[in-house]
Amino acid sequence: MVAVARPASHMRLMRMDDLDAVAAVEQASYDFPWTRGIFADCLRAGHPCWVLCIDEEVAGYGVLSVGAGEAHVLNICIAPVHRGLGLGRHLLGRLLDVSRWSGAQRVFLEVRPSNPLAKALYESVGFREIGRRPRYYPAKDGREDAIVMELPDMAGSRT
User: Fold this and answer.
1) Which of 26, 59, 69, 94 is deepest in the core (most CB within 10 A)?
2) Could you tell me the pTM of the whole model?
3) What domains does the chain contain, in order, with CATH numbers?
4) Distance of CA 55 to the CA centre of its chain
């Protein structure tokens, strides 16, 4: 197997002027994407929102909610053209760092059963399934459950 080098990238806080690029990545990635307005609402609400850039291009983003000793990964995505290079793991690591810095003891997220690559990534850093939300996500043939995952021990987790 040939190792693929991760391209040079940097992360920074998302800005309002990133929203068109973020929405474009979201549209290219999901059948039922978040709208530009949802991302704008997350910024206005003060949620930690990060972009991962290659050169100056937004290649991915993550949105987190933090409070009461817990964090919730609301959205994390890498543009299709940049997948398979370890960027998702890198971005997830930043969101977990932000969770720790914010005093979160546990981190939660939901993932579609139809997204086994994302589920495997989350499991590889210590997330475990703790339940299901029936019919949580819209799907082409109706609704799809969400797998609810938890990273319970922030002090012991490393990406």
Assistant:
1) 59
2) 0.91
3) 10-156 (3.40.630.30)
4) 20
